[in-house]
């Protein structure tokens, strides 16, 4: 077994033991351990939530006084005290609902990933464009000082996206948690200090 496979296997087993729906849960736990953006009572929106590992982590961190909303193209199975939506981030109905009804959000999370075509340039730009939609929505719902975590696939457009984020967030850092395979080209942009 290759080392990257062994690591994947390790986190898969661990997720099963810990009751997490996905090994991705550890990516969010590790990011939050380093950057502390999820707090008790926080209001959180998570884009690209299926099957729900990040939602479980977010709910655990924000507690009973917090609010967690998740949406995905795929139907997410029931999770206690989490608002589950079954919409594309690009759907105007979802966008109108969030912008019209959910304001003063503390954290926007995005683990959005398109279906992989295998042609890297296409997958990269498709993924960054999904993250751009998440960022655009974040700018409409985040409160002053809020945070955003955006998954990104490495490639030519990444630098331009970081620049776009920097126009609205005071700090933008790039991070690759241990639970993210070294062989994968994904990483996470950890943004804080949102300016309304
Ligand atoms: C890596 S998975 C997310 C895993 C999740 N964070 C977890 O912890 O379980 C990426 C998700 O993005 C979703 N996705 C892709 N395009 C989307 C879109 N346009 N709108 C909403 N979700 C989308 C996929 O359906 C997939 O479930």
Ions, cofactors and other bound molecules: S-adenosylmethionine
Number of helices: 6
Q: Classify the secondary structure makeup into a structural class.
A: alpha/beta
Task: Kindly give the count of domains.
Answer: 1
Helices and strands, in N-to-C order?
A: HHEHEEHEHEHEE
Q: The CATH topology is what?
A: Rossmann fold
What does this structure look like?
With 196 residues, this protein is an alpha/beta fold. 40% of the residues lie in helices and 24% in strands. It has a single domain, classed as 3-Layer(aba) Sandwich (Rossmann fold), CATH 3.40.50. α5 links the parallel β4 and β5. α2 runs parallel beside α3. The site of S-adenosylmethionine has 23 residues, from α2 and α3.
How are the secondary structure elements laid out?
Elements: H1 3-18, H2 24-35, E1 43-47, H3 53-62, E2 67-71, E3 83-85, H4 92-101, E4 105-110, H5 120-141, E5 142-153, H6 158-166, E6 169-175, E7 186-194
Parallel strand pairs: 1-2, 1-4, 2-3, 4-5
Antiparallel strand pairs: 5-7, 6-7
Helix pairs in contact: 2-3
The structure holds S-adenosylmethionine.
S-adenosylmethionine (SAM) binds at residues 21-22, 24-25, 48-54, 71-74, 88-90, 111-114, 130.
């Amino acid at each position: 077994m290759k080392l990257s496979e062994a690591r994947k296997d390790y986190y898969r087993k661990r997720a099963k033991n810990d009751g997490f729906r996905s090994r991705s849960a550890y990516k969010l736990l590790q990011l939050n351990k380093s950057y502390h953006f999820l707090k008790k009572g926080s209001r959180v929106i998570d884009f690209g939530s299926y099957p729900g590992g990040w939602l479980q982590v977010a709910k655990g961190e924000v507690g009973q006084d917090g609010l967690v909303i998740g949406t995905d193209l795929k139907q997410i199975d029931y999770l206690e005290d989490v608002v589950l939506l079954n919409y594309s981030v690009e759907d105007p109905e979802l966008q109108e609902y969030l912008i019209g009804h959910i304001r003063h959000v503390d954290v926007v999370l995005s683990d959005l990933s398109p279906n992989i075509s295998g042609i890297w340039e296409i997958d990269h730009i498709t993924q960054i464009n999904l993250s751009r939609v998440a960022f655009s929505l974040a700018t409409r719902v985040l409160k002053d000082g809020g945070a955003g975590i955006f998954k990104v696939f490495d490639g030519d457009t990444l630098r331009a996206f970081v620049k776009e984020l920097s126009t609205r967030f005071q700090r933008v850092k790039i991070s690759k948690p241990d639970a993210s395979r070294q062989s994968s080209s994904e990483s996470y942009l950890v943004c804080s200090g949102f300016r309304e």
